[in-house]
Model the fold of this input.
Amino acid sequence: MDLVTTLLAKKYGATLLELRQAVPAYSRGSVESSRRTFERDKDELRALGVPIDTLGTLGKADTRYAIQPDRFYLPYLGVVTPRGLARPCRLDRFGYQALQDFDLSDADLALLADAAARVAECGDPTLTDDVAHALRKLAVDVPPDALAPTPGVTMAQPSAAADPGLLRQLGEALVARKQVSFTYYGIERDETEQRVVLPYGLAFTSGHWYLHALDPSRGAVRNFRVSRMQRLEVNKKNPGKHDYAIPESFQLAERAVPVPAWALGEEAPVRVEVAFTRRTGATRAAKGHGTAVRGAPDHVRYTVRRREAFYRWLLGLGGDAVPLSPPDVVRGYRELAARTLASLTVPA
Amino acid sequence: MSTAAARFRRLLAVLPRFAEAPSQSLAALAAERGVAVLALLEDLQALAERYDDPAGHVESVAVFIDGDDVSVRTDHFRRPMRLSVAELCALELGLALLEREAGELAAAAAPLRRRLAELITRLPQDSAYDGLRDGALTHSDHGRALPRLRDALRRRRVVTIAYERAHDEAPHARDVRPYALHFSSGAWYLIAWCEKSEGLRLFRCDRIAEAELTAREHDVPDDYSLDAVLHNGTPFVSATPPAPLVVRYGPGIARWIAERDRGPLETDGSAVRTMPLADREWAIRHVLQYGPDAEIVSPAELREEVVERLRGIVGERG
Done:
């Protein structure tokens, strides 16, 4: 706090020597120990978003450090409503005059409030903290109800929710680009095994957190449901240095969207044409996962990787959709239906 | 984040309040900031009690704690700090979640995201935060009615919806009074009073083809509670007491069921679950999606309906 105050008060910044005179914590001990303390504080403050600028050549005795108030303080937030623009009172002295205006509409603020509420329900304590702090900053200038979320909107927490402590650790490992290891329960094989991966991103998909990470032993990016992880260890070697870089070709946005189970996996994709025999709420939703066939309004094409999962999904439509091609998919679907029928009709 | 950094962050959130009035109630300030009074007091005391300061240093912030009130004098921190990149990224995740469930929000959310980026001061290390978190709750555009439903909840308005039940061949219009929106098991549900059926009803939002606000306002009754409509975390509403549906899930899929509901497994690795049966068509589709790995144990006539449906699919009928 003293360092930030001192730098805000000094228009042209301060050298380390001047900071030793102004900041109690730097006045004790040797210059070298003060420098180390200052460097650690500077890094921590910058990580919090405090814009400490370095003026001159780094590490020289005359190097100056400065914080420009207009880069440090939030601009004045105006609210645009159908009734007009409401601006907060401006402070008339010190560095506050330099602050600019920044206008948002009441609809923008409502959207932000809902966005923050949604994030707060995701179960990641770091994100919950971050959105709460962000809203409190914005709330200084706007009426409290402008940043109130829509009442009555809630998200069920899954029974097997991700451990908040793990999410915090993974978030820190991601920013620091550190390798992580953990035990992972692979539910398909019903086995638990040790994994060592390089985290690329965390996605909250369909109500569950997934870590998307490069698995060097498989040479591919895999996703891991965080609730199935245990005993997470973040690589402690070389603190402050990145273990890896996330390739630019990796786009988390492309992987964060839910897709049907039959569209996942490494199997070669097959194009399947399906005819819908009834129009219902369920079939309308199912059609949305494929593309319409020109000239046949009730036919839809799907790109399928996992055939067995597709047959089951289709069977779940209760006979209101039937595959038309290719023939092996038609056969596979009918075989599944026959096996299911047999399982229900075989005498006990 | 270190303890000192977390304290610094909390103080920067509190101090701008003293620009309005130099003296404030500790309790009110703590409540408004969402922190415990004791935690706030400790933060402020850390600023106020600086016994180890060498003489001659100028006090940066003067804090006076007097019983239930606190006053702060400082030339600095009378405005909040700009957003940090971490705070911006957290808000962006929330906007992405909203945008992905209702494509029409993209027109509002995308420019808002760009504008929010102006509220941080970009620092060199900020690039380490880019693109690390993302998400989507539903398949794209499954919640296209959600923006209007949220608007209706905010404004306490009755909504006309075109709703297509799982087995309906066309949407049916009805006026409903929205009480809540709840996300569960991959879908959004609207819990509302249906004026057509004169009862509390549940609507899957991806089956709401259209939603239009009316000019009529309504109040959510005091005795409404979300807990009363949840069955094992999933919303469930029935006009009449539902019959029990018993399903056996085979060992091939039972562990997914057990992971989802934290219920027990049988000794052979299967799982048996009892749930309320309100919609027979839903129950048939529910077990069919698991193929031979799920079967209805009871009611027996519903199991027979599944068999008949399968006979139709494999061509054993007619």
The domain at 146-235 of chain B is CATH 2.30.30 (SH3 type barrels.).
